[in-house]
Amino acid sequence: MNLSEIFPGASAYEFFGNNLLDWLVAAAIVVLGTAALRIVKAVLLVRARRIAERTATDLDDVVVQLLDQTKLVLLMATSLYAASLTLALSPAVRHKISTVVVLVLLFQGGLWANRLVAFFIQRSIRKRAEEDIASTTGFATINFVARLVIWAAVALLMLDNLGVNITTLVAGLGVGGIAVALAVQNMLGDLLASVSIILDKPFVAGDYIVVGEHMGTIEKIGVKTTRVRSLTGEQLVFANNDLLQSRIRNYQRMAERRVLFRLGVTYQTPKEKLAKIPEILRGIIEAQGKTRFDRAHFQAFGDFSLNFEVVYYVLNRDYNEYMDIQQAINLAIVERFEGEGLEFAYPTQTLFLTKEESV
Predict the structure, then answer these.
(1) Confidence (pTM)
(2) pLDDT per residue as tens digits for the range 200-209
(3) Cα 90–96–99 angle (5° rounding)?
(4) Are 226 and 245 in contact (CB under 8 A)?
(5) CATH number, domain 257-340, options 3.30.70.100, 3.40.630.30, 3.40.710.10, 3.40.50.10330
């Protein structure tokens, strides 16, 4: 049994160049095709979610979100286009149907792209939150800019498919964009600098930095400014653009601290004792924990002392621990020099007086 037997006489009625039977077939394709596509989407979504639950990778999560974001209007537009192929339509009508389908595809593509951006932004926020929760606020700026670009591109493509001449519009937007950029160039500079800080990560919240004569701990990296808490308690506010143009010393990235100090002994110190001083200093430093001795030398003849230069490394970036180690070294040097009979030099002057013989 075919459709002619079910609907006798349907072929006798004609509408817009197609008989009633053809229209019924097209309507059936739209309804059944949409229903079939919805079933396929539901089955794929269930299977993708099951796979995503069993795996640790993020790729299957992206697939789940893209399937979930697929709208009914896309399924209907696909079925509508398939149904139009069974009908004898004029070129103008077929062009309009194609335009509608393309517009739906562009809208759906915008939704997919928007979902991808949101997914990767959220993943970056989760990873960054483990080490730098304060800097995650800057991702909101990246998210906004990315979505703005996506939907601006979708809107322009839609207008182009509707027959609107977007060349003049794009040119106008370009000129307007330049004017706006010139008006808010400082703000845009700080905004782009914020994005650069987020992506390049020269520092993160909690890092101790020195910028010129200012120093302190990073508290917050914002869209326009970065806040630093100084050692004396006040908050320092740096524009992001100015901060990136400066020479930044990030002590938080320091794996170990190089320490150089000098000491001097009196000129009356015997040669034999002078020769023992480098080994004494080596032993004292190596006896400390978390240090690596580098060198100790009789460096120079000073104005009032024989000077020794010592270099060692503290295998930790913590400043308080470095000071504790240096204090222990200094006390050990004082104790050892007292035991060896070595005297520290201090500024002195020796005056030689001569008595003139009377004639």
Answers:
(1) 0.51
(2) 788 888 888 9
(3) 140
(4) no
(5) 3.30.70.100
